[in-house]
Here is the input.
Amino acid sequence: MRVSFVMLGLRDHRTGGYDFNMRVAAALESRGHTVDRVHHETIAPRARGRRLAGSWEVLRRVAAFRPDVLVVGRSYTFMVPLRILLVFWRLPVLYLVHHLEWMDSPRKPSRSRLALVRWLVGRGDMIWCNSRATLSGLSGMGLSPERLRVIPPGFSRFEVKRSGESCRAQPLLLCVGALTARKGQETILKACSMLEGRDFRLVLAGSAVEEPGYARRVADAAESPSLSGKVSIKGHLNKEEVYSLMGKADVLLHAAPWEAYGIALAEAMWAGLPVVASRGGAVPELVTPGVQGFLYDPSDARALSEKIILLLDNGELRRRMGAAARSRAEELYTWERTCEEFVSLVEETACGQVRRDLPCGPGVATADR
Here is the structure.
């Protein structure tokens, strides 16, 4: 089977969604399918970061490849010409929705913006989403629940090297995520400034290039008198460096006002860290309040500080919640399970059409072929 996989953005950001797309594309190839990956590195340089040129490049690539099924990883900006063609070209389409970006923005999306997204995503014969929270958001836009499928992302089961003994006198609080407004580091710094003289260290690990203005505000707040000497901003780290930090940390802080899934949460829980996180989006699907950690209302710095204090003041509570977090993480999807179910979904999307030349994957009904 020939699969066109469009995953093009205006910028070449190596996000969790990008990692997901590359993993499942590789899984399709390992199943014997031929995949044309249309993304920032594979299109013509003149089309990179340009809406019009990029849109025509996507159209040209897909039309030239003549796929049996089209998989689209968001790519709203570049899909309009191809979406128009798909009115006449009966090509099976699987649309991927990693994130509803307006859910964690203070600005409400315009009706025209929502209408465009609904029009683009609505062309999907099947629509993949990463959590029940994302599914609920899509259902609220009027998309049929019958076409929506939830397959959670996996995460790497890394070797955990705990070194918590050195952190007991001065607990280490860790936040992992790009320094952007949607990750909420300003809320974390405000909450930590309210910790009433308690001894702690805070490490912020994440790229500062996506929103330089926000990153500067975070850096300035970290130098405030109440936090002076307590905060370290590490910038972008590779996975091994993040895992090492998780082995040294005592608590993971996560302040995104709305989270579509939360790979950093899953990884931290695997490392045995209790979590203090905003209850927005899919976080309650991973964290049960009072069991693996605490949840608080989005952007409520005072509530966040109160939850942090509970863990700072009680080492036994940290250990008990950390153990519960590890147990919960062991129940979550592995990458192997995610890729297996995703490949079957792509095959099911293709076989959902009356096309006798397409193979069906495991568990796919063949009555219509």
